[in-house]
Task: structure prediction
Amino acid sequence: MGTKFTKTICPYCGTGCGLIIKVEDGVAVATYPDSEHPVSRGSLCIKGWSAHEFIHHPDRLTSPLLRKGDAFQEIPWDEAIPMAAGKLRETAAKYGGDAVGGLSSAKCTNEENYLFQKLMRMAFKTNNVDHCARLCHAPTTVAMAQTLGSGAMTNSISDLAGADCILVIGSNTAESHPVIMGEIYKAIDGGATLIVVDPRKTAVVQNAKIHLPINPGTDIPLLCGMMKHIIDEGLYDKDFVKARMEGFEELNEFISAWTVEKASGECGINPELIKLVAETYAKAKESAIVYCMGITQHACGTANVLAICDLAMLCGHVGKEYSGIYPLRGQNNVQGACDMGALPNVYPGYQSVSDPAIRDKFQKAWGVELSDKPGLTVTEIIGSAGKDTRTVYIMAENPALSDPDVNHVLESLKALDFLIVHDIFLTETAKFAHLVFPGTCFAEKSGTFTNTERRFQLLRKAVDPPGNAKEDFTILCLLGSALGLDFSYNHPGEVMEEIASLTPAYGGIRFDRLERGGLQWPCPDSDHPGTQYLHKDRFTRGRGLFVIPEHTPPKELPDDDYPYYLSTGRMFAHYHTGTMTRRSPFLNREAEKAYAEINPEDAIHLDVKDGEKIKITTRRGSIITTARITKRVSKGCIFAPFHFTEARANMLTNPVLDPLSKIPEFKVCAANVKKESQDD
Ligand code: SF4
Result:
């Protein structure tokens, strides 16, 4: 078979770096950076360099599995597919189509996400389809659509290198998106000022000129205090506001109450420092705001993003090169899964299921009647399991580790009449399934991913799937056909042509146009070169809209019983629920076991030494983990990464939701910490 090299896309974060897989005799043996890739340009982080390591892992699923008591039994595909179709049909016939729920996947391709939502909507007349964007950037989609008209990164990753001022707020870019951090380093080398707002002293802070370690959950007071100072000093872009914005009077009235002194009282930052940061951001010729889950994963996540949009629009730092708003998407294709309509309220391209004209277009194209009722979100599907929701199909998602209040999630999975899980490993969630489909990883299939800067990119098959595992595209086509749908696609490229025909913003996307570097949407026709930055002369919604960002404190604050702030998040060596990275020897060597960060003063108070076991307890559960004593966290704060199954941080997190986007408040809850006497 010999040696071959295949260009494809990294399976981990939303940066979407280009990588080259070396295959020897059918086995992926190494990964190299792609120097011709327009985003990563020859860079990869530690996860990208190790991306081949899990592909041939012995834990890979190689056959459909059927539950028999507490064990699984291998069954052939020609039993598995009819069984899945039969159980789904049975549920819909007995309880109605809305008793079926589907979780699509930010790890799967655009074409697979398109087929998944189409299958759910066509076969069961339900919009109960969602995916893990609900847990990361749902507030971005809601708030940016409201203010600018488009819920996506306004600019391109490479624009960051040309910025004069970069405000990083609620993003540990250096660990979660290291190649994007490289663009920030370039900007700093060119003289840019880096300002970091984060309760933790993350790796990003090491390169910052100013660090604002705000109290957890006080982003809105800080941003409003900045806007008040900018308006008072006449530093806002009056021409931009007059020519392109609406709602300034209402915003100004609201902001007038947010003096820097009041903001300081809430966020804990010196008023003079708030003024300095406000002036630096407003006066710079090109200012950019980079944010991530530190902003979105709050019960006021949508209002947090509204405040960011308001600040950027107030200063005219949007609609041009090198400035803009940069929500950093977590998973490799979370942008694409949203774009493809794996959401309960929209078809592909964010076209509303409730709009009669839009629904009519999809009904005609798909040849069936569709529901006009928005469906349930991830947390609602899981929360209603065994009640309104009876059968669930989960494609490459792992709520048993990723969702808040995991004990409740596990009870919900057990309560289902039938659970179908489609994945590459027997995940924590798959262990609860009645039927398991063995799917394919990024290196075993073709299709497209869309990265965080709206870039459609080609994924190319490098190796064959293991055993009897099938390409996810094929599994969806087989299941769709078994359900009586016309899913006779021969290749993902045909699916892309259908997507383009139904979605104006992707009208010019074709596989043959993506061969060299991909295309950024909007790309409405076959001659369009793609769009580097949005909102150039007009916002997608016409005029930009200032929307009032009401501040609500975190729903659970420290008290006598639970005296610590607990925050959860990611670390550099692992990705999401660790399904792939924890099977990579190289990445495991970097971070082999679960830990929680604790401040040295708290460690003295608790009589805990570095490496000793601690027990963290919240109102929802307890975990035992290893203490990592560090000044990265402030006194009174604990940070726990959520990747580790042996100490599931999401046993602890608060499932309270942001009412607008329905994202849970992962970033703040109240916890108790005690030394655990038993060592390893
Ligand atoms: Fe992969 Fe993200 Fe690392 Fe790039 S930055 S190599 S996309 S994990």
